[in-house]
Every structure is written in C-alpha cells, then in structure tokens.
Design goal:
Elements lengths: L2 H23 L12 H5 L2 H6 L17 H14 L2 H10 L1 H30 L2 H13 L1 H6 L5 H4 L1 H16 L3 H15 L9 H14 L6 H21 L2 H4 L1 H16 L12 H31 L1 H7 L1 H11 L13 H20 L3 H30 L4 H12 L5 E4 L20 E2 L33 H9 L3 E5 H8 L6 H13 L1 E6 L16 H4 L12 E5 L10
Parallel strand pairs: 1-2, 1-3
Antiparallel strand pairs: 3-5, 4-5
Length: 570
C-alpha cells in the first residue's frame, strides 16, 4: 500500500474504531442493577458465573445457545475480579458490576469486528471501500444497540468476519494460512451463534473458485486447503464448545430444541403476522438503514459485473440466509446480524462505484458526490444510534417505578406485578433473599371468568401465555385476597391491545383495571403522551428505535385497588 494512502487511511480507521467503541459503551449501564432483557439475564452471564461455583465445572449444561461467549465472559471475569470466589461474591452482592464488565467485553468484540470488516473490504476491493464499509457497521442501529448487551448477537460478528476475511484470502491468494483463518473463524462463529454457519457458503464459493482456477494436476492444493479449513473449523468449534463432544447427548437434544423453537407456530401474542421474509426486509430498513439496504442490493448486482467470483463469494449467503430465516415462524431483527458484514461491504462497494461513475475524473465533483453519498449512507444509522444511546443513558422506567414503590408502598404489602421484571426486582437489595413485598403468583394461577379458583385449575403458565390468564374477574379476586397494588407494563398489556381478538379477556381486564382502580403512579418512556407512541412490537418495544422514546423501558402504571380488603381502613 502506498505510503500516502496509509497516511489518510489509518487515522480515519482509528477514528472509526473510537466512534464504534464510544457508541457501544454509551449507556452500557442501562437498567442496572436490574437486568430487564430476559435473554441477557438468563443465557450467558449467569452461566459464566455458575462455572465458578463449587461443584460445577466448565460444562455450561446448556446448549440452546452455543457457549462461545460464555467462555469468553468466564475468562474476562476471572482476569478482572482475580478469582472465582471474588466473581461469586461480586455477583451475589453487586451483580451490576459483573454485567457491566460483560457488556464492555461485548462492546470491545463488536468494535474489533468493525476493524476486521475494514481488513476484509481492503482485501477484496480498496481502502476507500474498506473505510466506508466499516463506517456503515460502526453506526448501523442493530450492531450498535446489541453491542450494549451481554448477548451473542453482536459478539459473533468478530469470528464471522474473520472467516469472511479468510475466505477472501482463499479467493485472492489460496495460501494455507488463509484456509486456516477461514476455518478458525467459522468454528468460533458457530460456537458463538449457530446461524453464523451461513459463513460456510462464502468459504465454499472461494474454494470452488480456487479449484477451477488451478490447473488440474495442482487441484490437490484446493483439497488440502479444504482439509486445513475443515480441521481448523472443527478444532475451533470444540475449543469454544468442548462439551458438544463431552456431553453430546445434551448438546444434541438442546440443539434440536432450539431448532423447534424457531420453527414453532407463532405462539407469541402480539407477534407480527406478515411473514418472515417481509419482516426481515422491513427490519433492514431500520436495522441497517434504508440507503445502505438499497445500496447493498445495488452492490449485489454491480459486483457480478466487476468479477463473477466475487459475486459468488458475497451474494448467495445473504439471499439464502433471508430465505431460510424468513421461513421460520419466529423472527426478530437481531437475527439478521450474521449477514450485516456482507451487506455493509456490498453497500460500500456500490457507493464507491456510483461515486466514480458520477465524477468521471472531475476531482471537485467527486468530493461533493462522495460527501453526499457518505451522509446518505451513514445519516440514518448515526441519528438513531445516538438517539438510542441517549435513551439508554437515562433512568429506566422500571427503576423509577420501583423507587416510587419503595417510597410509597409499605414493606410486606401484597402486590401484583406483571412479568415485565424479574423477581430480583422485588428484593430489598442485591444479595438479599428478603422480598420487600408479597408478590401475587402471576404465572402460576388461572382464575375462571366467574372468579372461581378450583385446586385443579392452579398450574404454571409460560411467560408468553401470561395474557391468557387475565380476565376482569381477577380484579375482584385481588381485592378479596388483599392484593391492593397492581403494577402493569406496556410490554405486557401491549401484546393484548395490539391483537385484541386473540386475547379479548385480557383487553377487558386492562380496561376494567383502568376504570375501577386509582392510578397512583404512571411513568412513560415517550417524549409525549399525545397518542403518537408506537404500538407494541417485539423489536421496537425493546430496542427503543423510534424517536418517540426519551428513556428505556415500558410505560409503567401502578394502580391502587379500593374494594374488599383493599378498602381504606378495612
């Protein structure tokens, strides 16, 4: 690379990496000391901590999500806190410190993925394309938002981009180290998130191109390279997920369970109904951005005209990924992240192709067009990522609601709290086993519409079925049993209100509650309550993308019942 090109490329890359890290660290303590994302609360951090507990080993005992990130967090905790005993102590007394460390690790991994994307684009195209591709991933909303949480979605971008970098090297050079890098990245990526296995398609395309370009007698080099990549992938996968082999029966059963969860019929009340492919195409318009999404489509076409081998390397994977994921019955925007590096690369390539064609050698015009295209590509992502960070940096509505309850509801009072929080929210403090209030077993009982409760009717219900347990008759039951305070959250009520035909009794319950009870406290996450607040959505109600949000969390309302044992002075 010419020295002059280094002089401007490296400082700009350094600035991009600082921006990427800053966007992912801003608001990293959101919600703490309480963890409100149910996946973050249950999947990786607690499993990493559990490995330090007496009687436990490095077997996560859990493979619904692969444990690659769990082991990374386990090592980070041991290094930062000094010993397993210290980790267990911090987690029991100050769990927020453990979660902050884990989120910072994910933010660092996401930032490193931006750097690798730069290297990938430079290997396939040039430094200008590389900087623009890295800039798109730096500011795109979904990588930034999930770079804040101790989840595997954003963290997997690092090994996934590594395998793409290795596959690009196979295509360009066919060296053994390129095959090894591609295999290592693929193994680590699959050990972090199963759907990252889509990266095998670019590797296969690179291998095919390498084989076809090699004279017949030397074709063994490609077969040798495939053997190297396959061996490295297997070794990396087992290194990051050793109990896939050592505890194979559990690994197999939970992998099958994860597959069944993705393929099950839409049992989630309030889930979108338009179909997965359309949902994911919509999600790209905000998760990546309108202009980058359209530019990636243009890039998918343009890359074939430049070099067919590059087309085979880059285009089939995102198309097949969209088709496969779109055929599942559950879909969330973050599940698109495994194809983001390729989409950012295609978008940047198309933009630079457009700039060069428009400028046609006129330097002043090239600068003006480049500036305009860059703003269009990055503007939406930057705006919404910064807005999201501002939101995350503010107090969560659930924290504010709890603070009000501590100040106004006597300890030991009976309360009904919807499953918008975990049980730790009810404890006196972190590390305490004593609850401040007596919580109604919302996920354990079903009350008949007439208010009766037969012993055989009592059973545990899934979180997703909570609204099916609701009916107006419950309000009388609360008053009869002395549960005088009812705490609701819009991420629960919204599921019923957005699909009233599917849960008519739940809708009637919320209306009756608003009519019969006194609204003692209400905190909204929105900038105004003029009816323009977004309706419930399994992405936007939890990632706060709409500009209507001013703070994280659902709308929290606390009601005071006034009849039966709840009558004042009764």
């Amino acid at each position: 690379m010419p020295t002059a090109e280094r002089r401007w490329a490296w400082p700009l890359l350094a600035a991009l990496l600082l921006a990427a890290l800053g966007l992912r660290l801003w608001g990293v303590g959101s919600g703490l000391p309480y963890v409100y994302n149910i996946d973050e609360a249950g999947h990786f951090v607690p499993k990493a901590v559990q490995m330090f507990a007496p009687g436990h080993n490095l077997n996560p005992g859990y493979f619904v999500n692969p444990p690659g990130l769990t082991y990374v967090l386990h090592v980070a905790m041991a290094v930062w806190f000094g010993s397993g005993k210290s980790v267990l102590h911090e987690y029991s007394i100050h769990p927020d410190r453990v979660f902050v460390l884990s989120r910072i690790v994910v933010a660092l991994l996401g930032t490193a993925a931006v750097w690798l994307l730069y290297l990938l684009a430079a290997r396939l195209f040039d430094r200008r394309t590389a900087l623009l591709a890295a800039a798109i991933e730096t500011v795109a909303f979904l990588p930034v938002f999930y770079g804040h949480l101790a989840l595997n979605d954003a963290a997997t971008l690092l090994p996934l981009t590594l395998t793409l970098y290795g596959s690009a090297g196979v295509l360009r050079h066919g060296r053994r180290r390129d095959w090894a890098l591609a295999g290592l990245g693929l193994g680590f990526a699959c050990a972090s998130k199963y759907t990252a296995g889509i990266a095998i398609l670019p590797l296969g395309a690179a291998a095919a191109a390498c084989y076809l370009d090699t004279p017949a007698p030397a074709g063994r080099r490609t077969l040798t390279g495939l053997a190297i990549a396959g061996g490295c992938a297997l070794a990396a996968f087992l290194l990051a997920n050793p109990y896939a082999l050592l505890d194979f029966s559990r690994f197999h059963s939970e992998l099958a369970h994860q597959s069944s969860l993705s393929e099950e019929a839409q049992g989630k009340l309030g889930a979108p109904k338009q179909g997965g492919v359309l949902y994911y195409l919509w999600a790209l318009t905000w998760g990546l951005g309108w202009i980058p999404s359209l530019a990636s489509l243009g890039g998918a076409i343009a890359v074939w005209r430049r070099e067919a081998r590059l087309g085979w390397l880059l285009v089939p994977a995102p198309l097949l990924f969209l088709a496969f994921m779109g055929l599942q019955d559950r879909y969330f925007g973050r599940w698109l992240l495994p194809i983001f590096p390729i989409l950012c690369l295609l978008a940047a390539f198309f933009a630079l192709t457009l700039i060069r064609a428009a400028a046609a050698g006129r330097r002043a015009l090239a600068v003006a067009v480049a500036a305009a295209v860059t703003v269009l590509l990055l503007g939406q992502g930057l705006l919404y990522s910064v807005h999201g960070d501002v939101v995350l940096a503010r107090a969560d509505t659930r924290n504010l609601a709890r603070a009000w309850m501590v100040a106004h509801i006597p300890a030991g009072a009976r309360v009904v709290v919807e499953p918008v929080v975990l049980n730790s929210w009810l404890l006196r403090s972190a590390g305490s086993s004593q609850r401040l209030w007596r919580k109604y077993p919302a996920l354990e009982s079903v009350i008949a519409p007439d208010g009766s409760l037969a012993p055989q009717d009592v059973h545990t219900v899934a979180l997703e079925d909570y609204e099916t347990t609701l009916s107006p008759a419950l309000i009388g039951w609360y008053e009869q049993e002395g549960y005088c305070w009812v705490v609701t959250g819009s991420t629960e009520s919204g599921r019923a209100l957005v699909d009233p035909r599917a849960a008519p009794l739940a809708v009637a319950y919320y209306r009756a509650l608003a009519r019969r009870a006194h609204g003692a406290y209400d905190i909204s996450p929105y900038t105004s309550d003029d009816g323009k607040a977004p309706s419930f959505d399994f992405d936007w109600s939890f990632d706060y993308y709409p500009l209507a949000y001013k703070r994280p969390g659902p709308r929290m309302t606390i009601y005071r019942l006034a009849e039966g044992r709840c009558r004042r002075g009764a």
